[in-house]
Design goal:
The chain has about 200 residues and is an alpha/beta fold. The protein has a domain of about 120 residues: Rossmann fold. The chain contains ten helices and five strands; from the N terminus they run βαβαααααββαααβα. It has a five-stranded parallel β-sheet, with helices on both faces. α1 packs across α10. It starts with a strand and ends in a 5-residue tail after the last helix. The relative contact order is 0.21.
Length: about 200
């Protein structure tokens, strides 16, 4: 089985890339979706968050208070590391279990959407790494609109991640997403043609 990681900085277009791959019939494991699940109401990371950060970071429905936590951790690297120890690391461990399950199921290729792949030094655990990227000013505008945050917060989040240049340098395949959705899909078809017998 071929395990391909998809990564890139915030607002680079990883979700759009993953959605297209799903539409073409491929299995895509989404690390962000898994993280939302374990930090949602009754999620298995909630007791850790309560123990290490306090009740003020838990909403009434029992889920993580994302806005409050974001304000805390992106201004405090030590707190960010503490949060990731109980969330990101759990997700990465769960992904390793999924790999084994998909291999037993007979999948030929599985994609893994992992935003912090390089930051957590997980790249060597995959057969190939695809990096989705876009110019910084485009990404800042996208994340400001998507998350309703100001430019300063957008830049703080980006600066907490590995630089795009380093990701591109380490990638096995780079997909540029500065244009339209159609252009992104054509780039993905090109990538698929290099790694699969057919591009569906």
């Amino acid at each position: 089985m071929l395990n391909i990681a998809i990564t890139g900085g915030i607002a680079s277009g990883k979700t759009m890339a993953s959605d297209y791959l799903k539409s073409q019939g491929y299995t895509v494991v989404d690390a962000d979706e898994m993280a939302r699940e374990i930090t949602g109401p009754g999620g298995k990371a909630i007791p850790y968050i309560r123990d290490h950060f306090g009740d003020k970071y838990i909403l009434e429905d029992g889920s993580l208070n994302r806005a409050a936590m974001r304000d805390l951790v992106f201004n405090n690297p030590a707190k960010l590391s503490l949060l990731e120890a109980g969330t990101t690391r759990v997700v990465l461990q769960d992904i390793e279990k999924i790999k084994k399950e998909r291999e037993k199921a007979g999948d030929e290729i599985v994609f893994y959407d992992i935003p912090l792949l390089f930051e957590k030094n997980e790249q060597d655990n995959y057969d190939a790494v695809w990096v989705v990227t876009a110019d910084r000013d485009i990404r800042i505008a996208r994340v400001m609109e998507r998350d309703s945050i100001d430019e300063k917060m957008a830049e703080l989040i980006m600066d907490a991640q590995e630089t795009e240049d380093k990701k591109i340098e380490a990638a096995d395949y780079v997909i540029y997403n500065n244009g339209s959705l159609g252009e992104l899909e054509r780039s993905l078809d090109d990538a698929l043609s290099h790694y699969t017998k057919d591009s569906h």
